[in-house]
Amino acid sequence: MPEQTTPIAETNRFIVLDKYVRAWEAADSYQSETDLERELVQDLHDQGYEYLPDLKSTSAMLANVRVQLQALNDVQFTDKEWVRFVETYLDRPSDSATDKTRKIHDDYIFDFVFDDGRIQNIYLVDKANICRNKVQVIKQFEQAGTHANRYDVTILVNGLPLVQVELKKRGVAIREAFNQIHRYSKESFNSDSSLFKYLQILVISNGTDTRYFANTTKRDKNSFDFTMNWAQADNSLIRDLKDFTATFFEKRTLLNVLLNYSVFDVSDTLLVMRPYQIAATERILRKIKSSFEGRTLSKPESGGYIWHTTGSGKTLTSFKAARLATQLDFIDKVFFVVDRKDLDYQTMKEYQRFSPDSVNGSDSTAGLKRNLSKDDNKIIVTTIQKLNNLMKSEGDLPVYTQRVVFIFDECHRSQFGEAQKNLKRKFKQFCQFGFTGTPIFPENASGAETTASVFGSELHSYVITDAIRDEKVLKFKVDYNDVRPQFKAIETEQDESS
């Protein structure tokens, strides 16, 4: 029998929706924790998740993983081969939660030698075709560590528990769910031979407020301040559990967040992107594709700018956009362009934190030229000054005719001048994107170029009012005089005086 999937509204296949329309009336009657759990499981089942009501033990979970990985990889393990696969790779006794997380993000392909001598790649997840990954849901799974615990709702991907949901009844503080899931991480998630070491995302809800956060291995990061709501593209929050289920837990969305919009960095910290970061990245990638498909290259309309306030994580957003752009088969190079030498080094360090092998930097114009000659699809981090010197000194380079994406960090006035003219004259097939906390608009451009005239239209914004509401910036003193409607104008004026 085919799976029944309930579709939801979407635009251009974005997972952060431009518009989400609630398809039901919110419950006005009392809901117990059991009622919430039952409704969540039913909603997930209606959205195409397979519900496994009888999966309650570690042995049953491991048997299900075997079935799912055999289907994903089109193989059959003998009992002896399966035990060896589990002991040498899937669930090695020495594995920590960090090791398990690395298997989802970096080491998800294992060369397994079958008993007959043949070698085959065994994938834990399929990142190239994410819809091939099977999603299932279980509830009330019991597991013992230093204490025995029973978990509310667990989402399995290819049989592995990657998402844990803890619920409290409506009216109970959501922090109680957070404290409970934090206690589980100390008491049982990470016990010996626990497949829950694979957990990537934790979700807490009291029905009226729902939040997600990374199952980071860094204990100092395990704070309620790092929880976040899902949101629409205009940054309006999606709090209710049913709305969160219809959007965040839509199968394609959840798999994208798990496999494309998370970063496991070199300090072994798992980072899951916030909705505004994902929205900006999606819209950049969509613009790249449409510009190359529509052959509208090398013009402002082929790019755009991202207006994200200071401290909102622009480096992670730009890194993901750059990294995913390099994976497009029609893109030859991605430049990440900064303005000063010290920021160039700082950005290199930040990028290398996310992925040490993904970036080619250069300490001189000659070094930049050498990096450009390397036949790989990696990201080039450079300053606007070095790039401009290269364009002035090198009349003919292969990269000038290649398909190129430019991402400018802090795209302010210094990037509107000679370098832009040279870039448009030298490069034949490019689109460019700018990140800024202070865009230049016609009213404060003093007759000169604006951010939009150079980079194209605004693709996404997340301004200081959004950040204050989300409590994602340091608090500062504000004398409230009902000036909220004027915040965007205030941000514009700050650039004018700089």
Taken together, the total number of domains comes to: 2
Coarse shape: globular
Number of helices: 16
Mean pLDDT: 85
What does this structure look like?
There is one protein chain. By secondary structure, the protein is an alpha/beta fold. The protein folds into two domains: 1-272, tt1808, chain A, CATH 3.90.1570.50; 275-496, 3-Layer(aba) Sandwich (Rossmann fold), CATH 3.40.50.300. The chain has 16 helices and 19 strands. It has helices at residues 33-46, 58-73, 79-90, 97-105, 174-187, 241-247, 251-259, 275-294, 314-326, 341-354, 365-372, 384-393, 418-426, 451-455, 464-470, 487-496; strands at residues 50-51, 109-113, 119-123, 135-144, 148-157, 160-167, 201-205, 210-214, 230-231, 237-238, 262-264, 270-272, 304-308, 333-338, 359-361, 379-383, 403-408, 429-436, 458-462. Strand 15, helix 11 (365-372) and strand 16 (379-383) form a beta-alpha-beta unit. The longest helix has 20 residues, at 275-294.
What are the main properties of this structure?
alpha/beta, seven-stranded parallel sheet, disordered C terminus, single chain, tt1808, chain A, globular, 498 residues, Rossmann fold
